[in-house]
Design brief:
By secondary structure, the protein is α+β, with helices and mostly antiparallel strands. 50% of the residues lie in helices and 15% in strands. The chain has three domains: 14-124, Butyryl-Coa Dehydrogenase, subunit A, domain 1; 130-228, Beta Barrel (Butyryl-CoA Dehydrogenase, subunit A, domain 2), CATH 2.40.110.10; 234-374, Up-down Bundle (Butyryl-CoA Dehydrogenase, subunit A, domain 3), CATH 1.20.140.10. The protein has helices at residues 14-34, 40-48, 67-78, 82-104, 109-122, 130-133, 234-266, 273-300, 307-335, 346-353, 363-374; strands at residues 126-128, 140-144, 147-157, 165-174, 177-186, 192-195, 209-219, 225-228. The longest helix is centred in the middle third of the chain and has 33 residues, at 234-266. It is globular and about 75 Å long. It starts with 13 loop residues before the first helix and ends in a 9-residue tail after the last helix.
Length: 383
C-alpha cells in the first residue's frame, strides 16, 4: 500500500514541505518512470500540502510564495523526482505570472484575480502549451459571432491528464496580419482530447501529452491577450523573466540529485587521484550550475521585465543547461559501471536532465539574441 502524507497548514515552510514530500516521491519515481505513468498521485499530495496554490497571493487565498521560494521548492523536489518537479514548474509559472501582475500592475488586478482565486479555492492544476507555441504560436482561430472557433494540436502539455485548464492560444488573421490570441481552455470541454503520445527518453512521468482541440468556441471576453505572432511582446518578456528561472530550478535539482548518488557510490571505492579529479570536476560543474541559476533568479527579482532582463535570464539558462548536463555526465563517470544499472537511479537523472536542452530560448537562439543585444541590433524577431 502506498504511503500518504498528512497535510501541512498553509503557513508551513514550503521548503520543508517540499523536502518531506520529496522523500515520498523518491519511493514512487522508478515505477512511474519504468511504466511511462504520469505521477498523478504526487499531485494529490501537492494539493493537500499547499504547493499547488503556493504562488497565489495570500490576499487571494494562496501561500504568497515568491519566485525564489518557489524555485527552492522545485529544486528540492527535483532532487528526488525530476518529472514531478518539471510538471509542477509548468503549473507554477502559470500561477506566478498573474500573481506578479496582481502585485505590480494595479490595472491588471481585475483581470488576473479571478483566475488566482479559482486556483486557490479549487486547487486547480494549470497546464501550458507555451514551449510548443512560444512566440511564433500555433493552432487556428476563426472569427465567429461573439468570439472564435479554435482548432489546434498542442504538444508538450505537462500534467495534461490531471489539468483543469490549458493555458494556450491560437493564430487568427486580423487586420491583415497573424495575431496570436491567448486564452484558457477548460480540459473537461467535449472539444478537448488528451492524446496518449508521451513516450520519451526522460521526464517520462510528466504526462506531457498532446492535446487536441477541435472546434472549441472561445468567447471574445475570454481572450486574455492579443499580440502579433512571431515577435517579442512585453507579456513574453514577463513570462521569460519568471517561467525560465523556475523551470531551470528543476534541472539544478536533478543535477544535485545525480551528484549525491554518484558521490555516495564513489565514497565506497579506494581513494585515487583519478577519483578525486572526477569528483572535483563534478562539484566544479555543479557550482557553475548554481551560480548561473542564481543570476536567473536575481534578474527575475529586479521585477523589471525587458529585453535586457530576458538576455540576462537566457544567458543563465544556457549556462545551467550546459553545466547541469555536464554534472550528470561526470556523475556517470564517477559512479562507474555500477551507475549503469537502473537500480542505482543515476541513469534516470542522466536521461531526465537531457530535457534541459529543449526549453526556449534554446542556446543557438540565445546566442543570436545576446549577440544582437551586444551589437545594438533588434531582437524582436529572435526566438
Amino acid at each position: 500500500m502506498d504511503k500518504s502524507v498528512d497535510p501541512e497548514p498553509q503557513s508551513a515552510d514550503f521548503a520543508a514541505v517540499a523536502a518531506r514530500l520529496g522523500k515520498l516521491f523518491a519511493e514512487r519515481a522508478a515505477d512511474h518512470d519504468e511504466n511511462d505513468r504520469f505521477a498523478e498521485i504526487n499531485f494529490g499530495d501537492l494539493k493537500e500540502n499547499g504547493l499547488i496554490d503556493a504562488a497565489v497571493p495570500v490576499e487571494l487565498g494562496g501561500g504568497g510564495a515568491d519566485v525564489r521560494s518557489l524555485s527552492t521548492v522545485l529544486r528540492t523536489i527535483a532532487q528526488s523526482c525530476g518529472s514531478t518537479a518539471l510538471t509542477l514548474s509548468m503549473h507554477t509559472h502559470q500561477v506566478a505570472i498573474p500573481a506578479w501582475r496582481w502585485r505590480h500592475q494595479d490595472a491588471a488586478r481585475p483581470q488576473v484575480a479571478p483566475l488566482l482565486r479559482r486556483v486557490a479555492a479549487g486547487r486547480l492544476i494549470l497546464s501550458s502549451s507555451g514551449g510548443s507555441d512560444w512566440i511564433g504560436g500555433s493552432g487556428k482561430a476563426e472569427r465567429v459571432d461573439g468570439g472564435y472557433r479554435v482548432t489546434a494540436r498542442k504538444m508538450f502539455c505537462s500534467g495534461a491528464p490531471a489539468a483543469d485548464l490549458l493555458m494556450t492560444g491560437a493564430i487568427c488573421e486580423e487586420g491583415g496580419e497573424a495575431t496570436f490570441l491567448h486564452f484558457a481552455v477548460p480540459m473537461q470541454a467535449p472539444e478537448v482530447t488528451v492524446l496518449d503520445t508521451w513516450r520519451t527518453m526522460g521526464m517520462r512521468a510528466t504526462g506531457s501529452q498532446d492535446i487536441m482541440i477541435e472546434g472549441l468556441f472561445v468567447a471574445e471576453e475570454s481572450i486574455l491577450l492579443k499580440r502579433k505572432a512571431g515577435e517579442w511582446h512585453p507579456a513574453l518578456q514577463l513570462v521569460s523573466s519568471i517561467a525560465t528561472p523556475l523551470i531551470y530550478s528543476v534541472y539544478l535539482g536533478v543535477a544535485e540529485g545525480a551528484r549525491e548518488i554518484a558521490i555516495g557510490m564513489a565514497r565506497k571505492k579506494p581513494a585515487s587521484p583519478r577519483l578525486q579529479s572526477l569528483a572535483g570536476r563534478l562539484d566544479t560543474a555543479l557550482a557553475a550550475t548554481r551560480m548561473a541559476h542564481e543570476t536567473m533568479i536575481a534578474a527575475s527579482e529586479r521585477n523589471a521585465p525587458s529585453a535586457e532582463t530576458v538576455n540576462d535570464v537566457m544567458v543563465g539558462r544556457h549556462l545551467v543547461e550546459e553545466n547541469a548536463i555536464r554534472v550528470a555526465e561526470l556523475a556517470m563517470e564517477l559512479a562507474g559501471g555500477a551507475g549503469f544499472y537502473r537500480k542505482a537511479e543515476l541513469e534516470r537523472r542522466f536521461r531526465d536532465i537531457q530535457a534541459a536542452r529543449y526549453h526556449p530560448l534554446q542556446k543557438e537562439a540565445q546566442t543570436e539574441y545576446t549577440g544582437a543585444m551586444a551589437l545594438g541590433q533588434p531582437v524582436d524577431g529572435i526566438y
